[in-house]
Amino acid sequence: MGFKVAVVGATGNVGREMLNILEERGFPIDEIVALASRRSQGTEVSFGDRTLKVKALDTYDFSDTDICIMSAGGNVSKEWSPKIGKQGCVVIDNSSAFRYDQDVPLIVPEVNPDAISGFARKNIIANPNCSTAQMVVALKPLHDAATIKRVVVATYQSVSGAGKEGMDELFTQTRAVFVADQVENKKFTKRIAFNVIPHIDVFLDDGFTKEEWKMVAETKKMLDPKIKLTATCVRVPVFIGHSEAVNVEFEKPITADEAREILREAPGCQVIDKREDGGYITPVESAGEDATYISRIREDSTVDNGLSMWIVSDNLRKGAALNAVQIAELLVERGLIQPKKKAA
Ligand SMILES: NC(=O)c1ccc[n+]([C@@H]2O[C@H](COP(=O)([O-])OP(=O)(O)OC[C@H]3O[C@@H](n4cnc5c(N)ncnc54)[C@H](OP(=O)(O)O)[C@@H]3O)[C@@H](O)[C@H]2O)c1
C-alpha cells in the first residue's frame, strides 16, 4: 500500500532532486503529482522512467493527498502550507516559513527524530536551512560525546542554494567574462563569477544576515539551546555543494582521533581525512551524494577542548531534498501516517 505524494516546486532545483530521491529510495508511492506555479502548467518533469505533466498549485485539491513536499519559497509556503495541512495532508516544508514556529517540528532524522511526534498540531514539518542541516549531522555525535559549548562557522555556499536563477547567473557571468562581454548582476548583489560574496539573505539590525541567524536559531532548536554559535555565510562560485570551516569548543576533552572514530560510525557521516595532497573532500565531489563529508579534523590548541574541521555536503540533497524525503520515511517507519486511499 502506497501514498499519494505531491511535490510543490517540482520544476525547481530542489523539487527536481526531490522527485529523483523519492524514486531512487523507493518511497512507497501509489500516485505522484508534480506542482508548480501557473507559469509551468503543462511542462514536463521526470520521475524515474516516467514523465509527469506539471499542474498548477493554486487549482489543486489536496483532500486525497497524503504527503506534500513543498519547496517553492517562503511566501508560497506561508500561504499554502496551513491550508494543505488543514486538508489532512502532511506538509514537509523546505522554506524558512515555519522553522521557528513552536508548533512545527524542525527535523534532521539523524539528529532529533523524536521531535517529529508533535507534527499533527499543524500537520507541518519543517526542513532546516541547507547549511544547518549538514553541520548538525556532523556535530550531533560529537555533542553526545563531549558536549559542545561554542561553534564558530564560516560557510562557502554554492549558487544552487539560491535556486535555478543563481545557477544561471554563475553560468552566464562566467561566459560573459570569457568573451569580454558586459557582466550583469541580477540574482546576486555583486558579481559571483570569479568572486565571493559575504552576504546571503537580508541584513538584520545587529549586522548579521538572516542566513547567519538561521544557523544559530536552528542549531539551538534541533541540537541544544545551550550551544553558542556565530556564523559568517558566504556565497562562492560553485554550482553544487556547500562547504563549512567549523571550529568547535567542547566542555569535555576530545582528541582529533576520537572525533574521527566517532564520526566514522555516525549516521549520515563519511570521514575523508588523510593528511596528504587531496586527502580531503571538495564540493564538486559531494554533488549527487547523500553523505555529509568531514575532512581536516584537527585539534585547536588556542582554546580548551577545541577542534577544527571541514564539512561538505550536496546542498540540494542533504541540505534540502534528501532530508525532506528522510522525514517522509520517518513518518512511515513510525506509523505516524496512513494512506487516505486504502488499497482495494
Ligand atoms: N537550494 C537549496 O540549497 C535549498 C536548501 C534548503 C531549502 N531550500 C528552499 O527550497 C525552496 C526552493 O528552492 P529552489 O532552490 O528549488 O528554488 P528554484 O529553483 O528557484 O525553484 C522554485 C520552485 O518554486 C516554484 N514556485 C514559485 N512560485 C510559485 C507559486 N506561486 N506557486 C507554486 N510554485 C511556485 C517554481 O515554479 P515555476 O517553475 O513555475 O516558477 C519552482 O518550481 C526555497 O524555499 C528554498 O529556500 C533550498
Automatic annotation (TrEMBL):
**Do you know which SMART domains this protein is assigned to?**
Semialdhyde_dh (SM00859)
**GO MF:** aspartate-semialdehyde dehydrogenase activity; NAD binding; NADP binding; protein dimerization activity
Pathway entry: Amino-acid biosynthesis; L-methionine biosynthesis via de novo pathway; L-homoserine from L-aspartate: step 2/3; Amino-acid biosynthesis; L-lysine biosynthesis via DAP pathway; (S)-tetrahydrodipicolinate from L-aspartate: step 2/4; Amino-acid biosynthesis; L-threonine biosynthesis; L-threonine from L-aspartate: step 2/5
Question: Where would you find the membrane-spanning parts of this chain?
Answer: none
Q: Which InterPro entries match?
A: Asp_semialdehyde_DH, Asp_semialdehyde_DH_beta, NAD(P)-bd_dom_sf, Semialdehyde_DH_NAD-bd, Semialdhyde_DH_dimer_dom
Pfam families cross-referenced by the UniProt entry: Semialdhyde_dh, Semialdhyde_dhC
Q: Which organism is it from?
A: Neomesorhizobium albiziae
List positions binding phosphate: 99
* Entry keyword annotation includes Metal-binding: no
User: Which principal EC class is assigned to this enzyme?
Assistant: oxidoreductase
Q: What does the record give as the organism's lineage?
A: Bacteria, Pseudomonadati, Pseudomonadota, Alphaproteobacteria, Hyphomicrobiales
According to its UniProt entry, what is the function of this protein? Catalyzes the NADPH-dependent formation of L-aspartate-semialdehyde (L-ASA) by the reductive dephosphorylation of L-aspartyl-4-phosphate.
Protein name per Swiss-Prot or TrEMBL: Aspartate-semialdehyde dehydrogenase
All copies of domain Semialdehyde dehydrogenase NAD-binding, residue ranges: 4-119
